[in-house]
Amino acid sequence: MIKDSFEMLILEDSDEDKTILERGIKKSKLPINITWATKVKDAELIWNDKKFDIAVIDQNLPDGKGLELIHIMKNWSDDKTPIIFMTNLESTILKSNATQNKDVYFLAKSEPLDQFIDLLKRLILVDLAN
Q1: How far apart are CA 31 and CA 106, in angstroms?
Q2: Least confident of 3-12, 34-43, 76-85
Q3: Crossing angle of helices 66-75/40-49, nearest 10°?
Q4: Which of 24, 26, 76, 107 is at a distance of 20 to 30 A from 118, taking alpha carbons?
Q5: pLDDT tens sequence across 78-118
Q6: What superfamily would CATH give domain 6-129?
Q7: Between the CA of residue 19 and those of 22, 26, 37, 121, what are the distances in Å?
Q8: In angstroms, what is the C-alpha Rg of the chain?
């Protein structure tokens, strides 16, 4: 069965970054429904309550680090939901730690928005193929 839309959780506390992501997704015309969270605690509750096709996680948040949440999310019932880990920090160590988890993709916020949209399109195509 082909999906009409995809559910995406975005954990981002910066209003500016949220606006940029939202505009990019709308402009792409991808059929994505976004659920927003600004804190790790809220994202955990939402993640446990709803099934998502894709998640976007920021690193530096008011109540924790996104990387810690990714490790928790990936340990819950061997979850295979793709996660895009985005941060302003362009650290190879951070990138390595994030992508050691299967289905986690690293993207620096300094990268053009088109790269984010291209990655979303690839993840949606993979989802449709399965």
Answers
A1: 22
A2: 76-85
A3: 20
A4: 76
A5: 578 899 999 886 666 665 666 666 788 888 888 899 999 99
A6: Response regulator (3.40.50.2300)
A7: 5, 11, 13, 19
A8: 14
